[in-house]
Amino acid sequence: MTSGPDLPTAFAAIVDDFQALTEPDRLQLLLEFAEGLPDLPEKYAEHPDLLEPVPECQSPVFLTVEVGEEGSADGGAPLGPDAPVRVVLTAPRESPTTRGFAGILAEGLAGLSAAEVLAIPDDVSHRLGLDRAVSPLRLRGMAGMLGRIKRQVRERVAA
Amino acid sequence: MALPADTTAKFAEYAHSERLVSTDWLAEHLGEPGLAVVESNEDVLLYSTGHIPGAVHLDWHTDLNDPVTRDYVDAESFATVLGERGISRETTVVLYGDKNNWWAAYALWVLTLFGHEDVRLLDGGRAAWIAEGRELTTDVPTPAAATYPVVARDDGEIRAFKDQVLEFLGGQLVDVRSAPEYSGERTTMPDYPEEGALRGGHIPGAQSVPWARAANEDGTFRSRADLEAIYQQEKGLDPAEPVIAYCRIGERSSHTWFVLQHLLGFGDVKNYDGSWTEWGNAVRVPIATGAEPGEVPQR
Questions:
Q1: Out of B46, B62, B188, closest to residue A135 by CB
Q2: Which ipTM value was assigned to this complex?
Q3: How far apart are CA B91 and CA B1, in angstroms?
Q4: Rounded average pLDDT over B3-17
Q5: Residue B59: C-alpha distances to residues A51, A83, A92, A105, B43 (Å)
Q6: What is the count of residue pairs from A and B with beta carbons less than 8 Å apart?
């Protein structure tokens, strides 16, 4: 399977990297994404209540989405589909698989607009070639994160 | 040759104390011939981030579940999986893992289905080893492959199927899920339907004992007196009568199976691994909701 034409460049590159590897190496790459997940920005680290839990994951995962120019005040002009999106994710170090999925989303969605995030196919977690090595059950957590990210983006853009 | 049992005083109280080892015991015996240390976690990558030196990895999903049928692997696959890890039929297997040994207990239960004689749990699991500041490594051992015999799985003794549970209604059932899962309350947000089961609640007559009540804060098992107070005094379970435990997919209930069978010495304990993902989806099986065990239907 290839990444398909419907993925933004950065996300397509991640999918291609996974697809090019053997199964054990895919797990190793997932581990690297787990290690590469950035720490929470300070304002969220101090206010975890601002983050939304993701119960589809087997471990405590929290996320939030910022839409609009960085530093722009709430209540400004209505946000359009071109508004930039920043995704903030956190997952415990004791859950490297889940953390790896969070890392993939953080990198794959970086710099995208609201419309581009909403256009990410919901089944993207199954394109990484991890269904057998990781199990579909565990991949459900990644779909849960993406679903919640997209819902938050829709709410902000529609508001 | 089986390794000697751990004679830690706390373990001596349990019915089958030889089923547990302490971190001290394990540290002392690491590397001895005849011992295999096996890590089994919820998270398939956790082992790769660091494990007990010499420990091999066994994943509940990719190694022990059949990839097609909802069942455990067959005898040939099981023999391959263990043989590759240098485990023979006589090996003393010590299992440990994350989340209070939740998945390690599940693996132990599956090894027991195949009649592996000497299989033990590390009390406190991965967390206890780490909390004590003991050594971890990312070096993956390459044990010489062993010949594990192809031994048929025996699903009769410690495994229960849905039809058996239906026949068993009115007997001692233990639901080890969380309180909201037991009551049938929805725990998910609107727009995010529960994917696991179409109906919520519990099997009528089942006692609610969330599995983690068997563990102390540090993940070690509670003392025998504490466990008796929960399962026997509080819930009135009779060790002389059969009991069936279940959860969502049979993993948490493996932990409770271990407690009832090996720590409290109940004579006939089965794990219903179909659990709520089967029962809550099955047509026309009785279900009770709310915090009470509920009425057992007349048959």
A1: B62
A2: 0.80
A3: 7
A4: 96
A5: 31, 43, 20, 25, 9
A6: 52
Question: In the 8-state DSSP scheme, what is residue A84?
Answer: B
Q: B interface mutation test: which of A56, A57, A94, A151 has the most B CBs within 10 A?
A: A94
pLDDT of residue B189: 43
Instruction: Assess A56–B contact: CB distance below 8 Å, yes or no.
Output: yes
Q: Domains in chain A, ordered, with CATH?
A: 9-158 (3.90.1010.10)
pLDDT in tens, A29-84: 999 999 999 998 888 888 888 888 877 666 788 899 999 877 665 555 668 888 99
Distance CA A68, CA A77 (A): 10
Q: A56, B192: Cβ pair inside 8 Å?
A: yes
Out of A59, A93, A134, the one facing B44 most closely (by C-beta) is A134
Rounded Cα gap, residues B180 and A159, in angstroms? 33
Angle between helical axes of A9-19 and A96-108 (0-180°, round to 10): 140
This prediction has a pTM of: 0.89
Average pLDDT of chain A? 86
Nearest-angstrom CA–CA distance, B105 and B101: 6
| CA separation for the pair A134, A149 (Å, rounded) | 22
Q: Which chain A residues contact residue B192 at CB under 8 A?
A: 55-56, 144, 147
CA quadruple B69, B75, B76, B77: dihedral sign: positive
Residue type for position B227: L
Contact (CB, 8 A) for A30 and A100: yes
Residue found by looking up tokens 């009115």 in the block: B170
Residue B219 CB burial class (10 angstroms; 0-12, 13-18, ≥19): buried
Name residue B107's amino acid: A
For B248-282, the three-class secondary structure string (H helix, E strand, C coil) is: CCCCHHHHHHHHHHHHCCCCCEEEECCHHHHHCCC
Mind giving me the DSSP string for B46-73?
A: GGGG-BSTT-EE--TTTTTB-SSSSSB-
Q: Which token pair is B181?
A: 């899962």
Q: How many CA atoms lie within 13 A of B151 on its CB side?
A: 18
